[in-house]
Amino acid sequence: MATTTKAPPIDWRARAVDVQFDGRALIGGQRVAALSGETFDCISPIDGRVLTKVARGRSADIDAAVVSARQAFVDGRWSGKPPAVRKKVLQRFSELILGAKEELALLETLDMGKPIQYSLAVDVGAAARCIAWYAEAIDKVYDEIAPTASNALALITREPMGVIGAVVPWNYPMIMAAWKLGPALATGNSVVLKPSEKSPLTALRLAELAIQAGLPEGVFNVVPGFGGEAGEALALHMDVDAIGFTGSTRVGRKMLEYAGRSNLKRVYNELGGKSAFVVFDDFKDVARAAKTAAGSLFFNAGESCNAPSRVFVHESVADEFTAIIKSEAPKYAPGDPLGGKAQIGAIVDETQMRTVLGYIEAGRSEGARVLNGGKQVMSETGGYYIEPTVFDGVTNDMRIAREEIFGPVLSVIRFKTEAEVVAMANDSAYGLQASVWSDNINRAHRVARALRAGTVHVNSYDEDDITVPFGGFKQSGNGRDKSLHAFEKYTELKTTWIRIDAE
Questions:
Q1: Contact present, 46 and 337 (Cβ < 8 Å)
Q2: Which of 101, 343, 429, 503 has a CA positioned 20 to 30 A from the CA of residue 373?
Q3: What is the mean pLDDT of residues 43-61?
Q4: Which of 108, 197, 232, 270 is catalytic?
């Protein structure tokens, strides 16, 4: 009887030594240096070392990419293909992503500091599934015929916009790129992607894989660079038809301004969050709620826009809840992202680490109590690591309860009544996600409806599927990634009116 031998664990540290980086832009199907010849250092947050030099794209590079994208769109090399043909190419793209999963996961971890186990198990797979899902969906979506009078035929069709500018953040570089690329490419557009300067490496590799899959040259271009240079140039470009942006609310405002200053391009902003996690006293499994809050907040070192950073707990169960959170937090102590066992890794760079530490100090100075953490750790590595931090005694007017921290910092806010907690939860500039924990089905429905957020979870958090939209209310933006609704962002709605003459 044949026996199977289990493969030895991968020595990611050894593999990291042998990585061959290519930081050049990809424009018109070719890897190219920035036209200025300038580069910037791509620094790993794991140990502070320079991984490689990356092309510093500026306005001229963006213009070259947009010209390439527009030419590809106009000549129909992609936009003119039947949906079934585009589907096959994107399916192949998805397969190639999975085939390169170890390479992509290692690039992601080295670039932005998340544990390799999650880059491998979460990020690569989610990006591939997203591309595959939109590939499969595109030839299943039908247009409409309006119910006009019998002497007219009104066809309602969706057509690709043209050139889409995609600007994505550093916390989930592959996933956020896929959320834009899937629907934009499936519907026949050309794309110019500007990845974050803090994590550009996987975007560049994805573009190579897309071309290998059969995507025509010029359809998908990647220009790395800084937000105030390449990002601004893309958003101001007169020949870009829409911007899909995921990032901070501060920059989202600029995107709207740039659209007004240029060609009134569509802007779809998916922005920040300060999500409320509401635990009522009638929810009996307090431990499950507390463990879910800790896991959802500390995952990815808190660098998630939907992290439940405001945890509202009824005063009668707050002591029990905080005791459990206090015991759970040390389980998320940072570790070596390449070691294979760390639950959380490094903060993306020194600037972000200093920002998070500044918020922790602000919480202390405003009177909140630190139950866990609150300090930088592993400084001897040269990297950027912060302990999981839990505050109690937080009030909803403190900075740590008002502003997006984007780090492993959880705030517990105690409440007395349902009306009070709904008012506090909604008293935020943001409205991305929320959660209600109650064994009373009437209360759960009532509060879920009252909360002003794009997604409200009931007795759970961070549930996710490609079939449901992701986005928020208020200053969390107007963008909706995922689901069939994303097709609406990257297509123009056209009516073709045909008069039918009588004999």
A1: yes
A2: 429
A3: 98
A4: 270
Element (H, E) at 89: helix 83-99
Contacts of 332 (CB under 8 A, 6+ apart): 294, 295, 298, 343, 344, 388, 408
H-helix segments, 274-417: 286-298, 318-328, 350-365, 399-402
> 85: which residues sit within 8 A by CB, 6+ positions away?
none
Helix (H, G, I), strand (E, B) or coil at 467: coil
Cα angle 196, 70, 191; round to 5: 30
Nearest 10 degrees: Cα torsion 263, 264, 267, 272: 110
Average pLDDT over residues 455-465: 96
DSSP 215: P
User: Exactly one of 197, 232, 305, 328 is catalytic; which is it?
Assistant: 305
Task: Assess contact for 437 and 289: CB atoms under 8 A.
Answer: yes
* Tens-digit pLDDT profile for residues 71-96: 999 999 999 999 999 999 999 999 99
- Report the phi/psi class of residue 221: left, alpha or beta, with left for phi > 0 and alpha for psi in -120 to 50: beta
Q: Which pLDDT value is given to residue 383? A: 98
270 is catalytic: yes
What lies within 8 Å, CB to CB, of 320 at 6+ separation is 286
Using CA atoms of 305, 309, 312, 318 in order, give the dihedral in degrees to the nearest 10.
150
